[in-house]
Amino acid sequence: GAGVSQSPSNKVTEKGKDVELRCDPISGHTALYWYRQRLGQGLEFLIYFQGNSAPDKSGLPSDRFSAERTGESVSTLTIQRTQQEDSAVYLCASSLGGQSNQPQHFGDGTRLSIL
Amino acid sequence: DAKTTQPPSMDCAEGRAANLPCNHSTISGNEYVYWYRQIHSQGPQYIIHGLKNNETNEMASLIITEDRKSSTLILPHATLRDTAVYYCIVRAPNFGNEKLTFGTGTRLTIIP
């Protein structure tokens, strides 16, 4: 079946521009997560959605980062006024629910490069 | 979530069973053991998870010791495509703490 889909797969943009990253979770998955992975490093949690609500935004690094989810489906992560330190792979994951016995399934990410 | 300890790297011959160990000596009774892997340039891939009993699926087997302080992921017939970094994670059932925290993992190299 269809897995988590992210677009674009690659994005190159100039410093100061805004970018929007999209995640299509697995159908029926109520929980959705955004992570960031810098080159050679581990996952950095950004935000968690349960349905369309975000009970945990603790990982968003600054107010330049925002995310929304609509229809308990698609989510977009927006980075305003991008900086070079925003360069990373942005990963989205979804799970059937938020419980610890429900595995998170990841997309292949959006590789963001800020020039 | 409990901390996990894994060897930094392992090699395994193609066609043999790959046995990847993980220590989680501070695991709590309600914490699940999860295994993921990440192949270069791809997102993490879920492999298997368990609480107390051994588990098997089409990808792998998970053996959890009786005291739950350690576990082993078994890839029964390793192929070159199994070369990846493997992460053992312990996950607590706390709402508000749903995020996954990956350690440094084990870099598994399958040798032809």
Helix proportion of residues of chain A, in percent? under 10%
- The secondary-structure element order of chain B is EEEEEEEEE
Q: Number of DSSP strands of chain B? A: 9
Tell me how many strands of chain A there are: 11
Mean pLDDT of chain A: 93
Largest pleated sheet of chain A: 7 strands, mixed
| Number of alpha- plus pi-helical segments of chain B | 0
Shape of chain B: globular
Largest sheet of chain B: 5 strands, mixed
Average pLDDT of chain B works out at 91
Strand fraction band of chain B? 35-45%
- Judged by helices, strands and strand pairing, the structural class of chain A is mainly beta
Distance between the termini of chain A: 36 Å
Give the strand order of the largest sheet of chain B, numbering strands 1, 2, ... along the chain: 1-9-8-3-4
Q: What's the total helix number of chain A? A: 0
Q: Which keywords apply here?
A:
heterodimer; A: about 120 residues; mainly beta; 7-stranded mixed sheet; 4-stranded antiparallel sheet; about 0% helix; about 50% strand; globular; B: about 110 residues; 5-stranded mixed sheet; about 45% strand
Mind explaining what this structure looks like?
- The complex is a heterodimer of chains A (115) and B (112).
- Chain A is mostly beta strands and 115 residues long.
- Chain A has strands spanning 5-7, 10-13, 19-24, 31-37, 43-50, 53-56, 65-69, 75-79, 88-95, 105-106, 110-114.
- In chain A, 0% of the residues lie in helices and 50% in strands.
- In chain A, the strands form two sheets. In chain A, strands 2, 4, 5, 6, 9, 10 and 11 form a seven-stranded mixed sheet that branches.
- Chain A is globular.
- Chain B is mostly beta strands and 112 residues long.
- In chain B, a hairpin with a 5-residue loop joins β6 and β7 (70-75).
- Chain B is built from no helices and nine strands.
- Chain B has strands at residues 9-13, 18-23, 32-38, 45-50, 55-56, 61-64, 70-75, 84-91, 106-111.
- At the A-B interface, β4, β5 and β10 of A face β4 of B.
